[in-house]
Each structure stands twice: as C-alpha cells, then as structure tokens.
Amino acid sequence: MSVIEVHELHKAYGETVAADAVSLTVEDGEIFGILGPNGAGKTTTVECLIGLRRPDRGRIRVLGLDPRRDGRALREQIGVQLQESRLPDALRVGEALELYAHLYEAPADPDRLLTDLGLTERATTAFGNLSGGEQQRLSIALALVGDPRVAILDELTTGLDPNARRETWHLIEQVRASGVTVVLVTHFMDEAERLCDRLAIIDRGRVVATDTPAALIGGVETSAQLRLRTVPPIEASALADLAEVHAVATEGEELVIRGDGDVLHAIATRVRALGAVTVSARLGQATLEDAFLALTGRDHAPEELRADAAGEVSP
Ligand SMILES: Nc1ncnc2c1ncn2[C@@H]1O[C@H](COP(=O)(O)OP(=O)(O)OP(=O)(O)O)[C@@H](O)[C@H]1O
C-alpha cells in the first residue's frame, strides 16, 4: 500500500524552480530516502508533503489525505523533524516531550519514548546541555510523540560525529521495525545506501531515479573504479586523456580512476610508458556515488554528497 503519492509536483520561487515534475510513491513500512545535493529541492518537496508549502501544480496524497485541505487530520498521523529545528536551551527533555504530547489527541507515552531513545537519564537535562547526538535523539522522539504512521526526518545526521551517526541510524531502523514508515531526507550517500529500502535521487529539482540502493548501484556495474599508487607518483592529468578513462581524482597518495572497457590494460601501459612502477592497484565496487554520477551526467559528485562529508564512516 502506498502511504505517500506525489504526482508531478511543481514548485518555483520566482525564477528558481525548486521542484520540477517530482513524482514518487512511498510504501507502507519502508525507509524511503530522498537524496540529493544542497539546493536539489528536497526540503521543498517535503514541505509540500506536510502542507507547509502550497505546490504550484501537482497532486499529493499522504495517507490518502490532501496536505493542504486535510492538514489538521494529517498532522495527527505524521511526525516531522525539520532541518535545524531547535528548542529553547532551557527546556528540559521531559518537559519538551510533555509539551509536544499535548499537541496530539492520542500521543505516545513520553516515558516509553524516553526509554526507546535512550534518553531516560537525560529527562531533566536542559536542551542546551545535551550533546549533538542527544539533541538529534530528542528530535526523533518529538517526531514520534504523536504516535505517527509516517515519520519525516530531514537531514537528521548533519553535524554529528561518526559514532552518533551510527547510533542514529540504528534508532531509525528501530522506528521502522515498530511499524512506522520513514521518509529520510539526506545528502549523505553512505547514509542512503546503508539505511534506505528505496530512494529517489533528486538533482536540480527533478527525480532522476527511484529504486533500491542495490538496483541503482547495479545499474552502473560496467563502470570500474581503480585506486592506484605508483612510484614515482604520476599526475592525474597523465591519465586523463586515455579514451577508457572517464575521471581521475587524487586522494592522498592514490589516484582514483573511473573508466570502462579495458581500462586496466590502458592504465598499465601508460604507467610503464611514464617509467613508473605500480605499488598498489585496487579495484573498487560501484557505489551510490557512481550511480549518482551516471544518472545525473555530472563528472564529479558535489562535495557535500560524498560519503565522508561528515568524517570517515563505515557502516
Ligand atoms: N523560500 C525560498 N525562497 C526562494 N528560494 C528558495 C526558497 N526555499 C528554497 N529556495 C531555493 O529553491 C531551491 C531548492 O531548495 P531546497 O531547500 O528545497 O533544496 P534542498 O535540496 O532541500 O537543499 P538543502 O539540502 O540545502 O536544504 C534552491 O535553489 C533554494 O535556494
């Protein structure tokens, strides 16, 4: 069953087209990712979903409701954590939950939420004294306090250290396991690959693909990635003209080369011709970043989309 249906959503701010014929469906019980670089139109799409913005055109149904017309009924059934939502520094964790619980007719039990989200010992701590990870856990708790069927979480792990990110991912999986459908807005490739059952890649206001991470990555299998180290080191520009090479980047002492066809042979021949010796050559597997590049036709991913944008994280 689809819990969210968006058909040809269009939204512009003056000359800027933020959402250009965006269509997507979110199925009951899944973690659905909306992945794209800054400015791609993710937040605009989500704000239309929850009735905060009026689309210029298009049809949206969330749990069968029209977010603009049936906003009140919808807000009883969805939980939202919006980007950079902050609480007053002096507000204590338990007080915040009680306060938010009063906004709903049939709220979840705040004590159970504190337990589920590992915040029981912080119940009397003021928001301003929580760590970044704890603040994010509280914002998940607040998104769940109405006992929603759908939780929409926008840029949940931005600014968190790798440990706190992993903890947050685990919590999101628990939320899904409890039967809540999760829409996760993110610009982190690794997060989308690790957590989402399916995802829509958005670029410049358009959905360029929707599928499971594995299927999106599978679609670019023919593109090989090689990490190469030589002595003496050779410049990226010394390989860039090879027909089999699509892109070369320098990462530390390694060259990261993407290409196809007989790219290994072409590189080996060039390395020898340059009088260099290969110290290590590792073939990498395609990632969501490769899928993004293939689907958007860009030759490099925007900096903030890379997996390590918030530090080195391995799932
Ligand atoms: N209120 C607004 N007025 C004018 N332009 C806006 C407004 N909100 C967003 N935009 C523009 O619309 C485009 C899409 O923005 P949006 O915030 O939806 O993207 P995003 O993918 O969520 O990006 P980010 O990850 O940076 O939040 C951007 O070019 C942005 O500058």
What does this structure look like?
With 315 residues, the chain is α/β, with parallel strands linked by helices. It has 10 helices and 13 strands. The strands form 3 sheets. Strands 5-6-7-3-8-9 form a 6-stranded mixed sheet, with helices on both faces. A 4-stranded antiparallel sheet has the order 11-12-10-13, covered by helices on one side. A hairpin with a 2-residue loop joins β1 and β2. The structure holds adenosine-5'-triphosphate (ATP).
Provide keyphrases for this structure.
2 domains; binds adenosine-5'-triphosphate; alpha/beta; 315 residues; Alpha-Beta Plaits; 29% helix; Rossmann fold
SSE topology:
Layout: E1 2-13, E2 16-27, E3 31-35, H1 42-49, E4 57-62, H2 71-75, E5 78-81, H3 93-101, H4 110-116, H5 132-144, E6 150-154, H6 162-177, E7 181-186, H7 189-195, E8 198-203, E9 206-211, H8 213-218, E10 224-231, E11 245-251, E12 254-259, H9 263-273, E13 277-284, H10 288-296
Parallel strand pairs: 3-7, 3-8, 5-6, 6-7
Antiparallel strand pairs: 1-2, 1-4, 8-9, 10-12, 10-13, 11-12
Helix pairs in contact: 5-6
The protein binds adenosine-5'-triphosphate.
Protein name: ABC transporter ATP-binding protein
GO cellular component, one term: plasma membrane
Subcellular location: Cell membrane
Domains (count): 2
- Total of DSSP H or I helical runs spanning 4+ residues: 10
The CATH homologous superfamily of the largest domain is called: P-loop containing nucleotide triphosphate hydrolases
Amount of helix: 25-40%
The overall pLDDT, averaged over residues, is 88
Mind telling me the CATH class of the largest domain? Alpha Beta
Give the overall silhouette: globular
Main beta-sheet annotation:
6 strands, mixed
Structural class by helix and strand composition: alpha/beta
Order of strands across the main sheet: 5-6-7-3-8-9
CATH architecture of the largest domain: 3-Layer(aba) Sandwich
Total strands: 13
Small molecules bound in the structure, each named once: adenosine-5'-triphosphate
